[in-house]
């Protein structure tokens, strides 16, 4: 790649490089708060979602600690089943709305997507900043909910419980409403950017697969989120005015609420996982030094997942009282959505096959992703099949399944992506050895925490239980120990990334030998990304000798 | 990815080649690209609006299926004539809007027509809201209110409050969009009066036009749905 | 491999649960197979093609045959699993016409059962074995879920709607109903016992409410009923305040009613309070107690009276 860009002062370790870049272009807090630079907005999003992850993680640890023993000896007097209910609700709501939905698209995507397209910025920079401020507003509203004593509805807000329980439920739904519009703005921005701001010469099939994944995600964000918005408004109005749509006491239909809710929230599952898959599609070719296998099938499978995701919502409702015919049809379509996900996994493995594989931290996370996501996907089959779902739904099996997909999938991919683009974002390297140790801690801790929950669920332990039978105690204790290992792993990451910011060795422009455009500008990039407009002549991931990369 | 660098060098030479439009944002290479991109963004936004209202339409349909008699009885309380009047008013406003968009691309010589047409559109919007005000006042007077505030006496069919819940939510959300529309129309009227629009740049008028047509279109669906139940 | 099944799944209470378990175990082995396959390929690749500087990797962009294989093969397997699951679901959702129908009502936070002859019970249901039993489920407040792990059946309990699950229990003994749809504070305590027993025992129980009471002194039996029938959610035994009057020291006391009357607490007053609780409301309390007619049988009533007498 060195022949492509003449970067002044390619860095060597420890040597200060006061090159002009987006971080030092302007100084002061005000320059950040009013910025329209997608990179700065991405960094602000990154800091915010990581804070949200910390908050959600705190609730997760509290929940696990409470469940250590059925008698709750450790937390006697500190917590009871009512505060437990609030804790798991806040864990879910914070993780879903404040962390995982914006995590990859709004934080990493904002930073990387225009760079990968060779663009100077996203299509609508001011809309981008507006999206961030909506996110902050939603986050503040969520914090107000916390201060007011939190809500105990579960993040799913099922009626009529949510319309009758006390607490600031209306505030919480409005927070999610505002966050939804933040997500819509990001989605609109990315779709327009991908359509219109690709570098000269970059056709649709020359785009990196990360862009395809984010593009498919953006479609869902735009088309599904408004329905969540109106659903939450209806719920809030039902609560205050009793309009008679969802609350059975006044003739409403609680099952209708579930249809409305899952019509958004199932596609939202793919808002969460598609960007994770998108990151993996970048990391694996880079560290295997080999062209991605099946580019088009990975790209099309992202779109297929996005489209099918709109017609499988009923699989959350097999025992909720929807019609039996609907249940059968939703089960069948659910199996169809399994296929494109499977195709992706096989493609990634085939990309590694006969590669030249090194195991830097991002690759360790990518491999963790493959293993954990495979488990998450396979256990999804148990829940898609009707007879087994009837037994397993609403148990810990479901909890374990979606954590394998959401955390083992998306969160692992997010952290992998964070390490992958960290040198680009900050201009610093981190400690590789600590990176590997943290990844191992997280991988082990994750499996200890959640593998036990598959057993709990199969044995008939329902979810959202503050108390449980003595016979489940060993598995619960095991799960709680795992949560501590996980926490240690995340704290370690926080520590060495902080150290990297303070005193990490300066990063070269292309530390991993990546082939996509973001590696062809300096680290960190300048304000408008590229000194010269890149012109693309070939597709991504070409590692043949004599080609521009490697 | 193989790339070659051609000296399009950034932001300076690009601008020297073409006459610089003050509305041209730096991250777009050409005005054409900028306009196309903005159009895509607007259409996506309109899609989210359709889905937002779509949720209400689906909810209405589900509740109508649940209480067909109540919905039929309740719709007699609405004034078809006023509803029809408002439909005509909005159709006229769509026409004036189309003409305003048309003339806004003709440059300075048609400035007067653009401003006049936009003002006409605003007048129509205000008439619409005025009629809506009288309708609402009548409903409030009769106690035909949403949810727990419903206090109409002498109903023979129960559960009519559900209909009025949807009536107020749907027309209320629509009315809010009309209000926002009036604000947007005022903004582009002022800009048109300053002579900011030309054949090269009339995007704001175009976008507000798209928005206005969508708001009209939603009313075209709302009118028969609420006022003309069979 | 039945030991493996036993650590994964609860005991099997019916023939149906065995069928569900067959599918479950098939899926477990299928998952193990694919996980080992994918994990094995990854580890093999990482070890075999460990990074060496200067190595050039082959430029393989796709392979139609391979990609078709791993698209079509999983699709076929998935469709097969769909039909397997559908088969079980059809059995689950259609109860045989000759089923014994038991009404179940979920409320915060207990399960109430009502039998065809009007017998009612709370948090404990006696079910004849080897007979098709259909539970017609509804809810009195929020969503609940009637989940019987040993029978592998569950269904949400929905207010204003009636849904059903059924099973034909083959294993006698104590089974559990547990609420599987989040319903608030005591969601996790919303459990009921299902006593699966022979037809004779079941019929006897219907008549008498069982004869377990004979094993206990009356006041002990009364205290057990205080818990089992849910009296404890409103009436305390230690004098502390709750939704209903405490029972401590109530015996022989004169209670004043909201309508101005009064009565001495004795056998007759207690009997009336349990079977017709709305007849007289004690001052300072809300008229919220439901009738326990059919729920508290004669022996239970005697026990409760003995308990109240004993709480000086």
Strand content of chain C: 15-25%
Greatest contact between two chains: A-C, 87 and 80 residues
**Overall 3D form of chain B:** elongated
State the separation between the terminal residues of chain C, measured CA to CA: 58 Å
How would you describe the overall organization of this protein?
The complex is a heterotrimer of chains A (550), B (230) and C (312). Chain A has 550 residues and is mainly alpha-helical. Chain A is 65% helix and 1% strand. Chain A contains 15 helices and one strand; from the N terminus they run αααααααααααααααβ. Chain B has 230 residues and is mainly α. Chain B contains seven helices and one strand; from the N terminus they run βααααααα. Chain C has helices spanning 2-8, 15-48, 64-93, 199-208, 218-228, 267-275, 298-310; strands at residues 100-107, 110-114, 120-122, 124-128, 132-139, 144-148, 153-157, 163-168, 173-179, 191-197, 254-256, 262-264. Chain C is α+β, with helices and mostly antiparallel strands. In chain C, the strands form three sheets. A five-stranded mixed β-sheet of chain C has the order 3-2-1-5-8, with no helix packed on it. In chain C, 37% of the residues lie in helices and 21% in strands. Classes of the chains: A mainly alpha (550), B mainly alpha (230), C alpha+beta (312). Chains in contact: A-B, A-C. Chains A and C meet through α3, α8, α9, α10 and α11 of A and α2, α3, β7 and β9 of C.
What attributes characterize this protein structure?
heterotrimer, B: 230 residues, mainly alpha, 7 helices, 72% helix, elongated, C: 312 residues, alpha+beta, five-stranded mixed sheet
Could you provide a short overview of the structure?
By secondary structure, chain A is mainly alpha-helical. Chain A has helices at 29-33, 38-66, 81-117, 125-147, 161-164, 169-196, 209-241, 254-288, 295-308, 324-352, 361-384, 386-392, 396-426, 432-458, 473-503, and one strand spanning 534-536.
Topology record:
The complex is a heterotrimer of chains A (550), B (230) and C (312).
Chain A: H1 29-33, H2 38-66, H3 81-117, H4 125-147, H5 161-164, H6 169-196, H7 209-241, H8 254-288, H9 295-308, H10 324-352, H11 361-384, H12 386-392, H13 396-426, H14 432-458, H15 473-503, E1 534-536
Chain B: E1 3-5, H1 12-17, H2 31-66, H3 68-75, H4 80-104, H5 111-142, H6 160-193, H7 203-227
Helix pairs in contact in B: 2-3, 2-6, 2-7, 3-6, 4-5, 4-7, 5-6, 6-7
Chain C: H1 2-8, H2 15-48, H3 64-93, E1 100-107, E2 110-114, E3 120-122, E4 124-128, E5 132-139, E6 144-148, E7 153-157, E8 163-168, E9 173-179, E10 191-197, H4 199-208, H5 218-228, E11 254-256, E12 262-264, H6 267-275, H7 298-310
Parallel strand pairs in C: 1-5, 4-10
Antiparallel strand pairs in C: 1-2, 2-3, 5-8, 6-7, 6-9, 9-10, 11-12
């Amino acid at each position: 790649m060195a022949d492509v860009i003449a970067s002044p002062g390619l860095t060597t370790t420890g040597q200060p490089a006061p090159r002009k870049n987006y971080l030092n272009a302007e100084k002061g807090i005000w320059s950040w708060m009013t910025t329209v630079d997608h990179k700065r907005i991405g960094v602000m999003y990154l800091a915010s979602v990581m804070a949200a992850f910390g908050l959600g993680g705190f609730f997760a640890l509290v929940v696990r600690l409470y469940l250590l023993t059925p008698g709750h000896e450790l937390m006697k007097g500190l917590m009871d089943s009512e505060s437990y209910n609030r804790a798991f609700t806040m864990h879910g709501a914070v993780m879903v709305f404040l962390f995982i939905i914006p995590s990859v698209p709004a934080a990493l995507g904002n930073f990387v997507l225009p760079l990968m397209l060779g663009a100077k910025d996203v299509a609508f920079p001011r809309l981008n900043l507006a999206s961030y401020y909506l996110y902050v507003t939603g986050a503040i509203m969520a914090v107000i909910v916390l201060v007011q004593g939190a809500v105990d509805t579960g993040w799913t807000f099922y009626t009529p419980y949510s319309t009758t329980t006390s607490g600031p439920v209306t505030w919480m739904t409005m927070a999610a409403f505002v966050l939804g519009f933040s997500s819509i703005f990001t989605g609109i921005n990315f779709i327009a950017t991908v359509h219109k701001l690709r570098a000269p010469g970059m056709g649709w099939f020359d785009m990196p697969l990360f862009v395809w994944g984010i593009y498919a995600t953006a479609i869902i964000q735009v088309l599904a989120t408004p329905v969540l918005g109106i659903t939450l408004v209806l719920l809030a109005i039902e609560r205050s005015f009793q309009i008679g749509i969802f609350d059975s006491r006044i003739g409403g239909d609680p099952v209708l609420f579930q249809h409305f809710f899952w019509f958004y929230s199932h596609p939202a599952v793919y808002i969460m996982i598609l960007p994770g898959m998108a990151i993996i599609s970048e990391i694996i070719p880079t560290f295997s030094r080999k062209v991605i296998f099946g580019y088009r099938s990975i790209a099309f499978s992202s779109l297929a997942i996005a489209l099918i995701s709109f017609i499988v919502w009923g699989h959350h409702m097999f025992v909720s009282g929807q019609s039996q015919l609907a249940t059968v049809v939703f089960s069948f379509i659910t199996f169809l959505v399994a296929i494109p996900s499977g195709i992706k996994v096989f493609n990634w493995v085939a990309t590694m096959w006969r590669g030249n594989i090194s195991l830097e931290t991002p690759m360790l996370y990518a491999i963790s992703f493959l293993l954990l996501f495979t488990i998450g996907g396979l256990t999804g089959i148990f829940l898609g099949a009707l007879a087994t779902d009837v037994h397993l739904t609403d148990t810990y099996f479901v909890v374990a399944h979606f954590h394998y997909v959401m955390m083992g999938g998306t969160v692992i991919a997010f952290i992998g992506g964070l390490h992958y683009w960290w040198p680009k974002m900050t201009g610093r390297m981190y400690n590789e050895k600590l990176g590997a140790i943290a990844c191992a801690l997280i991988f082990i801790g994750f499996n200890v925490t959640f593998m036990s929950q598959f057993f709990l669920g199969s044995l008939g332990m329902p979810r959202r239980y503050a108390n449980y039978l003595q016979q489940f105690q060993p598995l619960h204790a095991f799960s709680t120990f795992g949560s501590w290992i996980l926490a240690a792993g995340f704290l370690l990451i926080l520590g060495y990334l902080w150290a990297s910011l303070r005193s990490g060795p300066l990063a070269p422009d292309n530390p991993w030998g990546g082939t996509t455009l973001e590696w062809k500008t300096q680290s960190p990039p300048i304000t408008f990304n590229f000194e010269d407009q890149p012109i693309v002549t070939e597709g991504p991931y070409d590692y043949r000798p004599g080609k521009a990369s490697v | 990815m193989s790339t070659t660098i051609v000296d399009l060098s950034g932001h300076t030479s690009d601008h020297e080649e073409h006459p610089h439009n003050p509305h041209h944002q730096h991250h777009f290479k050409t005005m054409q690209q900028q306009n196309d991109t903005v159009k895509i963004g607007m259409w996506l936004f309109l899609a989210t609006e359709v889905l937002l209202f779509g949720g209400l339409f689906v909810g209405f349909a589900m509740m109508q299926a649940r209480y067909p008699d109540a919905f039929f009885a309740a719709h007699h309380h609405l004034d078809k004539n006023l509803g029809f009047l408002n439909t005509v008013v909005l159709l006229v406003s769509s026409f004036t809007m189309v003409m305003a968009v048309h003339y806004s691309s003709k440059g300075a010589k048609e400035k007067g027509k653009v401003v006049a047409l936009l003002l006409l559109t605003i007048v129509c919007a205000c008439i619409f809201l005025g009629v809506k005000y009288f309708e609402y006042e009548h409903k409030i007077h009769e106690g035909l209110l949403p949810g727990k505030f419903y206090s109409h006496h002498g109903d023979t069919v129960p559960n009519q409050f559900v209909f009025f819940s949807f009536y107020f939510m749907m027309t209320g959300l629509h009315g809010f969009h009309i209000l926002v529309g009036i604000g947007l129309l005022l903004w582009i009227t002022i800009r048109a009066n300053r002579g900011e629009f030309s054949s090269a740049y009339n995007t704001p008028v175009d976008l507000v036009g798209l928005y206005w047509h969508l708001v009209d279109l939603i009313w075209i669906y709302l009118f028969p749905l609420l006022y003309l139940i069979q | 491999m039945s030991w493996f099944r036993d650590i994964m799944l609860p005991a099997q209470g019916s023939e149906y649960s065995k069928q569900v378990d067959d599918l479950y175990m098939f899926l477990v082995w299928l998952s193990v197979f694919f996980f080992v396959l994918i994990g094995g390929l990854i580890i093999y690749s990482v070890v075999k093609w460990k990074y060496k500087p200067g190595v050039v990797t082959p430029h393989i962009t796709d392979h139609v045959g391979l990609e078709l294989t791993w698209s079509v093969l999983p699709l076929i397997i998935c469709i097969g699993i769909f039909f397997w699951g559908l088969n079980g679901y059809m059995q689950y959702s259609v109860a045989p016409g000759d089923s014994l129908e038991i009404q179940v009502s979920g409320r915060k936070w207990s399960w109430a059962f009502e039998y065809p002859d009007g017998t009612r019970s709370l948090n404990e249901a006696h079910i004849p074995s080897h007979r098709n039993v259909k539970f017609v489920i509804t809810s009195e407040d929020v969503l609940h879920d009637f989940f019987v792990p040993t029978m592998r059946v569950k269904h949400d309990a929905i207010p204003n709607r009636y849904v059903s699950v059924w099973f034909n229990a083959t294993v006698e003994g104590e089974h559990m109903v547990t609420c599987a749809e989040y319903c608030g504070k005591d969601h996790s305590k919303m459990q009921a016992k299902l006593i699966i027993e022979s037809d004779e025992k079941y019929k006897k129980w219907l008549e008498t409410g069982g004869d377990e009471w004979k094993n206990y002194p009356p006041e002990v039996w009364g205290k057990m009923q205080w818990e089992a029938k849910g009296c404890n959610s409103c009436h305390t035994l230690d004098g502390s305040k709750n939704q209903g009057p405490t029972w401590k020291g109530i015996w022989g006391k004169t209670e004043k009613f909201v309508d101005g009357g009064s009565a001495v607490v004795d056998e007759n007053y207690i009997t009336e309070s349990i079977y017709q609780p709305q007849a007289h409301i004690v001052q300072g309390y809300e008229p919220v107690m439901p009738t326990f007619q059919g729920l508290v049988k004669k022996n239970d009533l005697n026990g409760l009276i003995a308990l109240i007498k004993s709480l000086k």
